[in-house]
Each structure stands twice: as structure tokens, then as C-alpha cells.
Design a protein that fits this description.
CATH superfamily of the largest domain: MFS general substrate transporter like domains
Low-confidence stretches: 1-10, 467-471
Largest sheet: none
InterPro entries: MFS (IPR011701), MFS_dom (IPR020846), MFS_trans_sf (IPR036259)
Helix content: over 70%
Pfam families: MFS_1 (PF07690)
Subcellular location: Membrane
CATH topology of the largest domain: Growth Hormone, Chain: A
CATH class of the largest domain: Mainly Alpha
Mean pLDDT: 82
Protein name: Major facilitator superfamily MFS_1
Distance between the termini: 28 Å
Strand content: under 5%
Structural class: mainly alpha
Keywords: Membrane, Transmembrane, Transmembrane helix
Length: about 475
């Protein structure tokens, strides 16, 4: 795909394109975290329940996860630039809707819309990198992508705390969404000017029935996790989730039928036969299941148990972000020498950091923001070692013609796991907080998160043995 993009690989223009697309990735990443520190304020102003608060965070990821494969395939069909621009303007408009929401239910709907428009925008980022950097500069490009991905989380916490505290224009928490207006317009204008156009593939069209089936299946699998606790995990919750699994299996069978008839499936079925890629996706699922839920429970513990105000709570993550950047800068060169061993080492270091956080919380009844910031540095360094080279390692066996589909599957794994982690570990935290204590809930959540990272280590080792990923 995207032959026009490939031509630019010999010029400096591709680095300007990289800056633009990762800026969009940064905006998306910031909005994955910026809500966390505003949760107590949103809860009071909109009178939202704990399940609605979880949904405000997770529904954004669910909307994105359920449609990202579709977004990636649309990029393959219509060209990355066209779909990217549509996603950026849609994301900007739905961000404004989030800021205007007048109830918890409306905010959830607006966040769902925001996530679905991100599904058009974000897959084009990895697809563009995959095509623009097939040479020796690939490792540097993906390292930059990984650094931006990590910084987005810390920036989201810090910016969210700052905006809520400053209460600019009297908008309070709404400013965390309004800020996307000017930023989105700048990215749109820059992309329209700099990003090269990719021609549409003649004779191809979107597998719309497949897109509907996949959306329905994934929504049935993840959605009930958000509200199961409020209905005491009634039997129908499990029925819906089981139906979702069955629908996903039906989707895979349907896609094989589309390919047999000579059509263009929503996903490139050849990717499912790539053992290294599929094992890598499993490792990605475990890693991001732990990653997103970790930030949620740390924020809940700081603001609802320790009663740390939004701005100090957001600033706690800045040392973590610095450690992440340092690790990410080192991981690219180390990954070229040691391959996936660097990812495994990063996961082990992250588990050690989680144990240090748990030990601190167990021994100190009310740790200060300064103490928490210090112990989180180890977690941040471990995450940086993994996240920067992870996407490049998992996508290394994907052909350029399937870059959009491969990136879509990678993005689906990250966001489904993130949403599932928030829903499952968030529910566990709230249940134990209500039944026992916030400190106990936090410690149990950390142990589950560490177990998920351990699962990622096992799958990364399995991926390494596939002999399809360079080691």
C-alpha cells in the first residue's frame, strides 16, 4: 500500500510527517489518562456512580478497540492521509462534546464517540511509520513513537491536575476536553499540508458486515465488565459475555468465507498464521491490561484514600515519565543487540517496581506524594524498556501491504486489554475498598497487575522462540 509514502523514505520530509502523526498519537494518549485526576470533580458535579466513573475512562478505550481494525483497513483502502484527517477532525469535535456534557450518561456517550473517531486516526500512525521507515532509521522512529506513548500518560495526569486546579474560565474539569480544540485544528492543518497523499486501492471496499459483527462481539465481551458489579454479576452478564466470544468466533469464520470468495476481509488472515505476531499480540494484551489499570488504581488510591489534591496527584507521575523517557532512549539500541530479551528484562523490572510500591504502601500508612513519586520511578523505567520497542518487535514480520491491518490488530489488542484491565481491576478495587479498605484494595490490585506482567514475560519468551522475530 501507500507507494507515495514509500517514495518519501529518502527525504527529510518523513521526519516532519513523523512529528505530525505522533502528535496525534500524543493527543489520543493524553485523553486516555487526563480524565483520571478529574474523576472526583466529575463525580461531584455530574453525580456519577462509581460504575459510571469507570465507564468514562474505559468506554473511550472500548469505542476505540471495537473499531480500530476497521479504521486500519479503511486506511489500507482509501489511503492513510484521507482516513487520518477524518479521524483528527472527528476526534476534535467529539472532544468538544465531552466538555459540554451535562450528565454522567451523556459524558459516557461522548467518550464513546471520541474513542470511535480515534479508531480512524490512530491506526494510520503505526501504518505510516511502518511504511515510511523500512530502513535503518526504523528503530529510531519507533523509539520516538514509544517515548511519545509513555509521555502522553504522564502529560495527561499533569495537565489534567493543572487544568482542574486552575479552573480556567470557570470551566473546571471541562477544560481537559476543550484543550483538544485548538490542538486538533493545528494537527489537521499540518497533516493536510505535509503528509503525502496515498492513492485509493481500485476495486476494494470495506467489509462492512464483518465490521458490524466484530464491533458487536467485542462490545459484548468487554461492556458487561463495566457494570457487572452494580447488578451483583447477575447471570445475564455472563450470558452476554459468552455470546460476545461466540460472535468473535463467528467473525473469524465469516472472514475466511470473504477471503474464499475473493473479497477483502476486514483483517488480513495471513497475520493470524504468523505465530510470532500472534504470540506478540498475547504479550501486548497482558502488558497493557496491567499498564492502564495500574494508573487507574494509583490515582484512586492517591485521591480517594490519601486525599491528595488533583495537581500534586498529577505531578507524582512526572519522575516516572522521566524514567520512562530515559529507558526508552536506551531500549532502542539495546533491542538491536539483544532483541526481545530487552522486553523481558523491562517486564521483570516493572514487577520489581510494583513490589516496591506495594511494600511502601504496606509499611507507611499515608505515604506522601514525594515518597510515591520516588518509588514509581522503577515502574516507569521498566515500562520504558518495554513500550518503546514493543510495537516494532511485534509488527516486524508484517508486510507493508498489510501495515494498516497489522497496526489495527495491534491497536485492538492494546485497547481491548486496557479497557478490560480498567473494568476488571477497577471493579476489584471498588469492591474491596467498600468491603475492607482502600489500602487493601490497592495492594490486591497491584498483585493482580504484577501477575499480568508475568504473563507478558511468558508470551514474550514464546514469541522469541518462534524464530521469526530477530533476537
Amino acid at each position: 500500500m501507500d507507494q507515495t509514502l514509500a517514495v518519501t523514505t529518502a527525504s527529510s520530509r518523513r521526519w516532519r510527517v513523523l512529528a505530525i502523526v505522533v502528535a496525534a498519537q500524543f493527543m489520543f494518549g493524553v485523553d486516555s489518562f487526563i480524565v483520571n485526576v478529574a474523576i472526583p470533580t466529575i463525580s461531584v458535579e455530574l453525580n456519577a456512580s462509581s460504575s459510571q466513573l469507570e465507564a468514562v475512562i474505559a468506554i473511550y478505550l472500548i469505542g476505540y478497540a471495537t473499531l480500530i481494525v476497521t479504521g486500519g483497513r479503511l486506511g489500507d483502502i482509501y489511503g492513510t492521509k484521507t482516513v487520518f484527517l477524518a479521524g483528527v477532525i472527528g476526534f476534535t469535535l467529539t472532544s468538544l462534546w465531552c466538555g459540554l456534557a451535562r450528565s454522567g450518561t451523556e459524558l459516557i456517550l461522548a467518550r464513546l464517540a471520541q474513542g470511535t473517531t480515534a479508531a480512524l486516526m490512530v491506526p494510520q500512525v503505526l501504518a505510516t511509520l511502518h511504511v515510511l521507515f523500512p530502513d535503518a532509521a526504523r528503530a529510531k522512529a519507533f523509539a520516538i513513537y514509544g517515548i511519545v506513548l509513555g509521555l502522553a500518560g504522564a502529560a495527561g495526569f499533569a495537565l489534567g491536575g493543572l487544568l482542574v486546579t486552575l479552573d480556567l474560565g470557570g470551566y473546571g474539569w471541562r477544560a481537559i476536553f476543550f484543550v483538544n480544540g485548538p490542538v486538533g485544528l493545528i494537527i489537521f492543518a499540518a497533516a493536510a499540508w505535509v503528509v503525502p497523499q496515498a492513492p485509493r486501492r481500485p476495486g476494494t471496499r470495506l467489509d462492512l458486515p464483518g465490521a458490524v459483527i466484530l464491533f458487536t462481539g467485542l462490545l459484548c465481551v468487554i461492556g458487561p465488565l463495566l457494570f457487572g458489579r452494580e447488578v451483583d454479576w447477575a447471570g445475564w452478564i455472563w450470558v452476554v459475555m459468552a455470546a460476545g466470544v461466540a460472535i468473535v468466533l463467528i467473525f473469524l469464520r465469516y472472514e475466511r468465507g470473504v477471503a474464499a470468495r475473493g473479497g477483502m476481509p476486514l483483517i488480513d488472515l495471513a497475520l493470524l498464521a504468523d505465530s510470532a505476531f500472534m504470540r506478540g499480540l498475547g504479550a501486548v494484551f497482558c502488558f497493557f491490561f496491567a499498564n492502564q489499570s495500574f494508573y487507574l488504581v494509583v490515582t484512586l488510591y492517591m485521591q480517594m484514600v490519601l486525599e491528595i489534591p488533583p495537581l500534586p496527584a498529577g505531578l507524582v507521575f512526572l519522575p516516572l515519565a522521566l524514567a520512562f523517557v530515559i529507558a526508552a532512549r536506551h531500549s532502542g539500541a539495546r533491542a538491536r543487540r539483544r532483541g526481545t530479551l530487552v522486553l523481558i528484562e523491562g517486564c521483570l523490572l516493572q514487577i520489581a517496581g510494583l513490589a516496591l510500591v506495594a511494600l511502601t504502601v504496606a509499611m507507611i500508612e499515608a505515604p506522601t506524594p514525594f515518597v510515591l513519586a520516588l518509588v514509581l520511578i522503577v515502574v516507569g523505567y521498566g515500562q520504558g524498556l518495554v513500550m518503546a520497542p514493543l510495537s516494532g518487535a511485534v509488527l516486524s514480520t508484517v508486510q507493508a501491504a498489510s501495515a494498516g491491518s497489522g497496526s489495527g490488530l495491534y491497536g485492538t489488542a492494546t485497547q481491548i486489554s486496557s479497557a478490560a484491565g480498567i473494568a476488571a481491576i477497577g471493579s476489584l478495587y471498588f469492591s474491596l475498598d467498600h468491603a475492607i479498605s482502600g489500602q487493601f484494595a490497592f495492594l490486591v490490585a497491584l498483585s493482580v497487575i504484577a501477575g499480568s506482567v508475568a504473563g507478558s514475560i511468558i508470551l514474550l519468551h514464546w514469541m522469541r522462540r518462534a524464530a521469526l522475530v530477530p533476537t
